[in-house]
Design goal:
Helix content: over 70%
GO cellular component, one term: plasma membrane
Largest sheet: none
Number of domains: 1
Number of helices: 6
Keywords: Membrane, Transmembrane, Transmembrane helix
Protein name: Membrane protein
Strand content: under 5%
Structural class: mainly alpha
Number of strands: 0
Order of helices and strands: HHHHHH
Pfam families: DUF308
Radius of gyration: 24 Å
């Protein structure tokens, strides 16, 4: 692992831990700010995409796709503003699905590139993501404040695991002797 990769993992781990602490200590405020920022983005991006799509209708035969993305942004912003309870639960489930996808893709990448004997610490964030995502997806009743705290704790542990990945000793590759090409009797 290069020193740039190690530095990135340290930085990423620290930022994820800070994010987790904020979520765990202030779940209502942080979730409200996230929803407000997402709604604002939906409104601004929605209006811009709708305006661009309509203005390009003569030059671009697919103008309606741009306009449709603008309408989608406005609809999502409207849902966040006018049905925040539904939005909160949907975002918890979206996070759970995201955590499962992250876990699966990290596991696939791990088993294609690493050895369980030497790099087992690199597998822990993937396993942890699968467990947390599965728990949030399958639990019986969502409680947004508790779930946001839980996501905050997940972020803290995930960040720590990422941080320790950077501190893992470098793998040493043993020199593999090169075999001579097979002889075909032409000595």
């Amino acid at each position: 692992m290069t020193w740039q990769r190690r530095l990135w993992l340290v930085f990423r781990g620290i930022m994820i831990v800070v994010f987790g602490i904020v979520l765990a200590l202030m779940p209502r405020i942080s979730f409200f700010l996230f929803l407000a920022a997402f709604a604002t983005l939906g409104i601004i991006d929605g209006i811009a995409a709708l305006a661009i799509g309509i203005s390009k209708r003569r030059q671009n035969p697919r103008w309606w796709l741009i306009a449709l993305s603008g309408v989608a942004g406005l609809v999502i912003a409207g849902l966040i503003i006018f049905a925040p309870g539904l939005t909160k639960i949907t975002l918890i489930y979206a996070f759970a699905i995201w955590a499962i996808i992250v876990g699966v893709t990290q596991m696939l990448a791990f088993f294609r590139t690493r050895s369980l004997r030497t790099d087992w610490l690199s597998l822990l964030p993937a396993v942890f993501s699968l467990i947390i995502g599965g728990y949030l997806l399958l639990k019986s009743s969502p409680n947004v404040v508790t779930d946001v705290r839980f996501i905050g704790l997940y972020a803290i542990v995930y960040g720590i695991l990422t941080f320790f990945q950077a501190l893992q000793p470098a793998r040493t590759r043993e020199a593999v002797p090169q075999e001579a090409p097979p002889r075909h009797g032409y000595d």
